Structure formats: C-alpha cells, structure tokens
Amino acid sequence: MNPRIPHVGVGVIIIREGFVLLGRRIGSLGAETWALPGGHLEFGESIEDCAVREVLEETGLALEAIAQGPYSNNFFPAEEKHYVTLFITARCPTGKPLVLEPDKCSTWQWFRWSELPQPLFPPLASLVRSGYVPHDAP
Ligand code: 8DG
Ligand code: MG
After folding, report:
1. Which of 10, 12, 24, 40 for a ligand 1 pocket mutation test, highest count of atoms within 8 Å of Cβ?
2. Structure confidence by residue, pLDDT tens digits, 70-108
3. Average pLDDT in the 105-133 region?
4. What's the pTM value of the predicted model, to 2 decimals?
5. What is the pLDDT of residue 27?
6. Ligand 1 within 6 A of 54 CB?
7. In whole angstroms, how far apart are CA 136 and each of 38, 72, 84?
C-alpha cells in the first residue's frame, strides 16, 4: 500500500446496554492499543457494508441499527501513515464477540465510554478528545 496518500478506515461503535466493544490490537499499526472493530474501506464498498463486513470478520457479530457517526483524521508519524476514520454506530443486542483474527486482536471486551482503557488507538483517542459521546452509552 502506498503510504504517501491518506487511506480510509472505518471504526464501528457497537453499543450494547450502555457499553461499547473494543479490541486489543496486536502485530500492526497501533499494537497494544485498544481500538474499535473496523478496518480498511474496500474499493467500491459502502461505509455501512464495510462496517458489517469488518465486524463479522473480526467478531462474528451481526449489526443492527447502523447509523453514520463522526470522523477523525490521524497522521502516524513513526509509520508515515495517514488515515481518515469514518465512525459508524450500531447495535448488537446478542452474541458473544469471538476472536476470529487472533493475529490482529488478542481480546474483545465491553467498556463504558466514561471508563475506557488505555492506551487507545489514535483514531479512537481523537474521537474521545473531540468530546463525542455515543447515544445511550455515556
Ligand atoms: P489489510 O490486511 O488490507 O492491510 O487490512 P485489513 O485486513 O483491512 O486490516 P484491518 O485490521 O481490518 O484494518 C486495520 C486498519 O484500518 C488499521 O491499520 C487502520 C484502519 N483503521 C482506521 N481506523 C480504525 C478503527 O477505528 N478501528 C480499526 N480496527 N481500524 C481502523 O483508520
Ligand atoms: Mg480488514
């Protein structure tokens, strides 16, 4: 991938009973940080389809009530990478998140927005700094 152009990432804010789902990243950009499920937008794909696909690939969970969220703009100086992250909000009332890509994520856990773990993946850290709070998950 050409590192000298901005890339589009999708981050999915899955809300269940006031908690949001985060995974601990391993082995790539932002290793050891906590991130929303998500990934690269594929060529020709809609943002919503990307959210559904990435969450299914990574956790096995099926999304409902998918809605557009805010965005963040992040430059990663050490890696010379630049991502614009488009956030999506969604519900997922049932099902246990599975670690389906163990080379990319070591664990999934539910957190309250007011009690997020550290360190956060920079796109999520930017979102928190912006003052954004998901509906029904303060
Ligand atoms: P690749 O194998 O094609 O390189 O990527 P992939 O399979 O799509 O990797 P991924 O782990 O699904 O996507 C991770 C990339 O997505 C990550 O390196 C940067 C980008 N990304 C953002 N924002 C967010 C986010 O909030 N959460 C996640 N999980 N990935 C994000 O730009
Ligand atoms: Mg992916």
Report:
1. 40
2. 999 999 999 999 999 999 999 999 999 999 999 999 999
3. 98
4. 0.95
5. 85
6. yes
7. 21, 21, 25
pLDDT at residue number 2:
64
Domain range annotation of the chain? 7-129
Nearest CA to ligand 1 atom 5: 40
CA of 60 to the centre of ligand 1 (A): 17
- Tell me whether the omega of the peptide bond preceding residue 77 falls within 30 degrees of 0, making it cis: no
d(CA 35, CA 25): 7
The CATH number of the structural domain formed by 7-129 is: 3.90.79.10
H and E: helices and strands count for the chain: 2, 7
Q: Is 11 in the pocket of ligand 1 (CB under 6 A)?
A: yes
- Residue 1 has a pLDDT of 60
What are phi and psi for residue 58, nearest 5 degrees? -90, -30
Whose C-alpha lies nearest to ligand 1, atom 31?
39
